[in-house]
Design brief:
The complex is a heterodimer of chains A (242) and B (316).
Chain A (H helix, E strand, L loop, with lengths): L1 E10 L2 E11 L4 E5 L6 H9 L8 E6 L2 E2 L5 H7 L1 E4 L11 H8 L9 H7 L4 H4 L10 H15 L3 E5 L10 H13 L3 E6 L2 H4 L4 E6 L2 E6 L1 H11 L15
Parallel strand pairs in A: 3-8, 3-9, 6-7, 7-8
Antiparallel strand pairs in A: 1-2, 1-4, 4-5, 9-10
Helix pairs in contact in A: 3-6, 4-6, 6-7
Chain B lengths: L3 H14 L14 E5 L2 E6 L4 E8 L2 E8 L9 E6 L4 E12 L4 E10 L4 E12 L4 E10 L5 E11 L4 E10 L4 E10 L4 E10 L4 E10 L5 E11 L3 E10 L5 E11 L4 E10 L5 E9 L3 H8 L5 H13 L1
Parallel strand pairs in B: 1-5, 4-6, 5-7, 6-8, 7-9, 8-10, 9-11, 10-12, 11-13, 12-14, 13-15, 14-16, 15-17, 16-18, 17-19
Antiparallel strand pairs in B: 1-2, 3-4
Helix pairs in contact in B: 2-3
Classes of the chains: A alpha/beta (242), B mainly beta (316).
Chain lengths: 242, 316
């Protein structure tokens, strides 16, 4: 479904993504593990097509189509979406409006109240509230996930959906991811929590802008534990320690 | 002879365009004042609400009193308009909310055909002890501006009273707006001023909101949300003075510029007189927030659609 080939993204002198190769299969949950500052969010932005994150080399194919030159809107309309690690605040836009905006191109709409229930928020309390700074970061992250559910994407990129979420709610977040997969979406799950990564069908370790290893989650988390916490190698070939 | 019926219909239509429900203008259980130019087309008081109006040169003088302890369930509807292309409308208004009373005012000002219209409003608001009032004023202008809007409001809030105002001019071109609201707040009183304006074409917008927190524990918020596009210009001064002990005030100004030739200026001004007073401010001027735009783009909106959604949310 998604193939990144030799993707390089450089900011100034720094290569953030360095000839990165990654394949995500159809209906796959694919977790990306990596320590802070290793390029995980940049990878998400490059796939989504943010204006400030153009790739300088390489190619991104989505369902066989070269999307490298497409902008965010075009990619979103092809079925790619992103749940932001730090969701934006919107003054004067209600949760209800936001969820309706997210599914305005869907033929079959889901009731916003139902979407909120799926992320563990009481619709009576939240639907008419503004998506602004009166909501906590955790609440906004759940609403972000509800918007992703509303959008019914072919590919959902979830940038650390577990950060800032209390431990008890992690199971709920996992259920949302499983619901996405059950609805036919592929999911790129960016995280630095091994437990979260373990729910994936496959995992990859990202280190200094390269994918070092891709395998089943157990193998990848073992690799991650042995080599990345603390980092014993930077940008070494995939076979190392495999 | 003036056809009041037709004038009423036209003003009701303009009222509807500005977001009002024309049914409000014929409701028997609500207090209503409807003024076209310098003519009072409708004046309807209800028990506990006294409205007294009289024509003056180029306008109307009116006094609305909400009697002591009266808590209104329905808002008081005010509709001011000038239907011809030219004209001056001078409104001298006094709003008195007596002790322990509570009232909401919904004012709609419509100038749908304006080419050269001046709308001058001199308002005086007195909020009695432990009384509460909200004053929402929404303007409807035609697409070409042609209106000078000059609202001046002085608000006096007595002990324990509270007042919230919202001035909104989003539809049509603003023309020239020179808004000056001042509020004087006594012990445990509070004032919140909200201004929402969308400047287009060659609009010139000047907003001055001043709050004087004179009493102990007085609270005040001056909040403005201004969007300027094309060649419009806006200047906002939000000012709070902390005279009273433990008074708290905040100025919150956000201006968004859309277009190369639009200009915006924000000046927050804080003056602490009593050492226990605490005043804060935040002011932001710039284009539409990039992250907000990108978030909506990742939901499938174009950049322009996203910016419109964000701006209209801000001005809601």
């Amino acid at each position: 479904m998604l193939t990144l080939t030799n993707v390089t993204l450089q900011k100034g002198d720094r290569k953030i993504l360095d000839h990165l190769n990654l394949t995500v299969q159809s209906n796959e949950i694919h977790s990306i593990l990596g320590v802070n500052g290793t390029g995980k969010s940049t990878l998400a932005y490059a796939i989504m097509g943010l204006g400030d994150y153009p790739i300088q080399e390489g190619k991104i194919l989505f369902n066989g189509q070269d999307i490298t030159a497409l902008n965010m809107t075009e990619r979103a309309r092809l079925g790619i979406t992103l749940a932001w690690q730090e969701p934006a605040r919107f003054e004067g836009i209600s949760v209800l409006s936001y969820l309706n905006l997210a599914q305005r191109q869907q033929k079959e709409k889901t009731l916003p109240a139902e979407l909120l229930q799926k992320v563990g928020l009481d619709p009576k309390r939240y639907l008419l509230r503004d998506l602004d700074s009166t909501l906590s970061g955790g609440e906004r992250k759940r609403i972000e996930l509800a918007a992703i559910l509303a959008q019914r994407p072919q590919l959902a990129i979830l940038d650390e959906p577990d950060s800032g979420i209390d431990a008890l709610s992690i199971e709920q977040i996992k259920n949302v991811i499983l619901t996405l997969a059950a609805n036919g979406s592929s999911v790129i799950l960016i995280t630095h929590h091994e437990q979260m990564a373990a729910m994936a069908d496959r995992s990859s370790v990202l280190c200094a802008g390269k994918i070092l290893k891709t395998s089943i989650p157990e193998e990848v988390t073992r690799f991650f534990r042995n080599h990345c916490q603390p980092c014993t190698h930077v940008n070494q070939p995939e076979t190392e320690g495999g | 002879m003036i056809d009041y019926s037709s004038e009423f219909q036209q003003l009701a239509k303009a009222y509807e365009l500005s977001g009002g429900d024309p049914a409000n203008l014929t409701a028997s259980d609500a207090a209503i004042l409807l003024v076209s130019g310098n003519r009072v087309l409708l004046e309807h008081g209800i028990p506990g609400v006294i409205i007294k109006s009289q024509p003056i040169e180029n306008g109307v003088k009116t006094k609305i009193t909400v009697k002591k302890g009266v808590k209104l369930k329905s808002p008081i509807h005010l509709c001011f308009g000038v239907l011809p292309a030219d004209g001056i409308q001078n409104i001298r208004a006094e709003f008195i909310i007596e002790d322990q009373a509570s009232a909401n005012f919904l004012a709609h000002c419509s100038f749908p055909n304006a080419a050269q219209v001046q709308h001058i409003m001199h308002g005086k608001v007195k909020i009695g002890k432990n009384a509460h009032a909200e004053y929402d004023e929404t303007h409807y202008h035609g697409p070409d501006g042609g209106v000078d809007v000059l609202p001046v409001m002085k608000v006096f809030v007595e002990k324990g009273g509270s007042f919230v105002s919202t001035f909104k001019l989003i539809q049509g071109a603003a023309g020239k707006v020179d808004l000056e609201y001042k509020a004087y707040v006594e012990e445990n009183g509070s004032v919140e001023m909200n201004t929402k304006l969308f400047g287009k074409k060659n609009d010139r917008i000047k907003v001055r909101e001043s709050i004087y927190l004179d009493g102990q524990n007085a609270h005040g918020l001056a909040k403005s949300r201004i969007v300027v596009s094309e060649k419009a210009q806006a200047k906002v001064l939000g000012e709070v003075t902390g005279n009273g002990p433990h008074s708290r005030g905040h100025v919150d100004c956000m201006e968004i510029i859309r277009g190369q030739q639009a200009k915006a200026e924000a000046i927050p001004k804080l003056l602490v007189v009593d050492e226990t007073a605490k005043l804060t401010h935040e002011a932001a001027i710039g284009s539409v927030d990039k992250k907000q735009v990108e978030t909506l783009m990742s939901r499938g909106l174009t950049a322009d659609e996203a910016a419109n959604v964000i701006v209209m949310g801000l001005l809601k």
